[in-house]
Design brief:
The chain has one helix and no strands. Keywords: Coiled coil.
Length: 80
């Protein structure tokens, strides 16, 4: 009877430890998935910000070119 009882306790302890390990594994998996999603969102936000910065730089360059063109026209108009 003692052997049966001790065997049952041992099996229960192993099952409990096994379940706890699975729970920790699931928590780790969830943490990794959340980190991957957050990283993906951060990368997408970075790409969007970079694209906007490039668009702004292009617009600023066009405006600077127009300003130079106007300055040249004014300078050549004054000479005539």
């Amino acid at each position: 009877m003692k052997k049966v009882l001790l065997s049952a306790v041992l099996v229960s302890a192993i099952a409990f430890t096994s379940c706890r390990d699975e729970k920790k594994a699931e928590e780790i998996e969830d943490t990794i998935e959340n980190a991957a999603e957050e990283t993906e969102e951060a990368v997408e936000d970075g790409f969007e910000a970079t694209g906007k910065a490039i668009d702004d730089a292009i617009e600023d360059t066009k405006e600077a070119g127009e300003s130079i063109e106007n300055a040249v026209e004014e300078a050549t108009d004054d000479e005539e």
